[in-house]
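Q: Convert this sequence to structure tokens.
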Amino acid sequence: MREGLVSRLAAAGMSPAAAAPKAELFVAAERALAASDSGSRGEPFRWFVPGRIEVLGKHTDYAGGRSLLCGVERGFCVVARGRADRAVRMADAVRGLEATLRLSPDPGDTPSGWTVYAAAVLRRIVRNFAGPLVGADIALASDLPRASGMSSSSALVVSIFTALAAVNRLEERPEYGGAIRSLEDLAGYLGCVENGYAFGTLSGDEGVGTFGGSEDHTAILCSRAGHLSRFSFCPVRAEGTIALSRDWTFVLAVSGVPSDKTGDAKERYNLASLSAAAVLELWNEATGRSDSTLAAAVRLASDAPDRIRDVLRYRRHPRFPPETLAKRFDQFFEESERLVPAAAEAFARADASALAGIVDRSQERAEHLLGNQIPETITLARSARNLGAFAASAFGGGFGGSVWALVRVSDAPAFRDAWEADYRGRFPAAADASRFFESGAGPGRVQID
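A:
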């Protein structure tokens, strides 16, 4: 079985060095599933569900903007079997955690930690898909760092939904087909499972309490191995793929400072979303328009960005000071409308010199306008550039998390070691929880069987 698992992941485009350890994770998940002995039946389903690298697109998706994304070669190895009742038994084979919820409007005990995301999925399935439903035994084993900015929480949402959709054959239901017609649609829907918004005819609820978008779910489902993918959002639209030079790879640094969207960083994360919404609110009030996203307003006409800036100078919002909204708009506009397209073109040309300036600009705007960077991520990005990376940027929600660096494949091991040593010397308090590893541009979700 192990050889078959590795072969399937390799066929999907995962590098051999990344695929081999997944076999052990699948074995651990299989054991956890067998240990439950709870009456689930039939042959198990198996998937690999990755995390993601946000190459560029900092806090753009929920405002309809653009992102440049790829899968990371780490994630969840998922094994699931259907049950005869509505119980959903979940086991984390790596952390030794277990939880049982129910497919119900009230899934069970007040959820906390990882079960917050699982409970949101269960509630939403019950709300959106009428008729008989059965539960599942689901075992997961992950090598994706948690709360790192690589979308471990969204990967968990995709994993739980994928398992329950399979055992209930949700894709065959009219409610599903009426609203979800593509992987991009599914990504948009699962983003709404987290933020609680309705998706077409599929009604919403409270979600998990964050006001994010669907960038993470899109990368997890739609990434192509060896490629970067450009998307715009609200709704999710593919805008093209770019082959990553075979001579280039990513080295990832997990800072050791958690970026947990339902933890300490949630309020600051939500403020970034709410301030973008406030800019759109003032614009619509001033113009009498009803643009659905900030990106739609920006793309209205060539002079729209300047007109939005004028509105922000003369109108006041009850929650945010003018300077805050002006900074938030300038960061969004430049990141979404200028830097993401420019970076895609530079990657397509394998133009390391052009890419360096584009990514440095994105990082600088995140530090000074978006304000979601901390000393650890700022230092990691600058250290990577000083050590010879073509480009380096923090990514994810911010206020902790990770930084990617782009280097030549041949230089990656030595660069990784030097980068880690430099960080450990500068931030010894965070060093024990930090992680440094290499990853190509990995595939999206892979069904193993």
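The radius of gyration is 21 Å.
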